[in-house]
Specification:
two-stranded antiparallel sheet, about 130 residues, Umud Fragment, subunit A, mainly beta, 2 helices, globular, eight-stranded antiparallel beta sheet, about 40% strand
């Protein structure tokens, strides 16, 4: 679910380039931070506002990190760049222009099926797997 950034395990200088995912949302492992590409299939990091974390009781799932509220960025796969519609768990979500719908690989992932579409402005970086389990 959360992306435990390498600042916990690597010197701060490397945190701009490497990230470690320890959650089942995506394969656990080492990821290289890249430039952001807003397109379906891209892996992206983003910070959720504290209000959304509180509203959906997500704090227990998001480790400490560098986002506002001292939570780690989430790392998810973009499945739709708005406008469009996505069916998720029996609900249909409307994704507007300027928003993306993100999903984790795990069925239990805390993703857009829980908190809804994400504004593109919240997206921070792209990531690509370097070594995963």
């Amino acid at each position: 679910m959360g992306l435990l950034l390498s600042t916990l395990l690597f010197p701060k200088a490397l945190a701009e380039y490497l990230a470690i995912n320890l959650t089942p949302s995506l394969p656990r492992g080492l990821y290289r931070v890249t430039s952001l590409e807003v397109q379906a299939g891209a892996l992206v990091t983003f910070c959720l506002p504290a209000e959304i974390i509180r509203r959906h009781d997500l704090a227990k799932w998001i480790p400490p990190g560098r986002c506002p509220g001292r939570r780690a960025p989430l790392c998810k796969r973009i499945v739709l760049v708005g406008p469009g519609k996505v069916e998720c768990g029996g609900a249909v979500w409307r994704v507007l222009r300027g928003q993306v719908f993100v999903r984790g690989d795990s069925r239990k992932s805390q993703d857009s099926c829980v908190f809804g579409p994400v504004p593109v402005a919240w997206l921070r970086d792209g990531v690509v797997p370097v070594w995963t389990l």
